[in-house]
Amino acid sequence: MSDAEGDDVPSPVAAAGGAMDINTALQEVLKTALIHDGLARGLHECAKALDKRSVHMCILANDCDEPSYTKLVEALCAEHGINLLKVESGKKLGEWSGLCKIDKEGKARKVVGCSCVVIKDYGKETQALDVLNEYFKSKR
What we know:
- α5 (67-80) links the parallel β2 and β3.
- α3 (22-35) packs across α7 (127-139) and α4 (43-52) runs parallel beside α5.
- The protein is an alpha+beta fold.
- The chain is built from seven helices and six strands.
- The longest helix has 14 residues, at 22-35.
- The chain has helices at residues 2-8, 12-16, 22-35, 43-52, 67-80, 90-96, 127-139; strands at residues 39-41, 57-61, 83-87, 101-102, 108-109, 116-119.
- It is globular and about 45 Å long.
């Protein structure tokens, strides 16, 4: 009976099929990093981590309404040579980085917006991480 239960649930990578898009890959990498306690969320935590140069990647929300905030994060990333990725919404970024409650149906509730997240530890090597690394290589 236990063998049949495992076969019914496909893995997230297998469900994606062929090529994975950047947002899907980012969600998976953020989830893995969150599990391994490798995320810093918010300006204070992100600025400290960026200054220490202990960061692999930085994600910034486009809808941030404070120009000095985005200017600071972009400057720190450029100065230290850290990959910067921009997403369209702070609410989505907050949900992807675990700043929400999950209800019984698996839907995100009480999502807190977040303008900046940095990944200090990927956790483990995944296909999604490879997709993001290829994206950054093609951007240079």
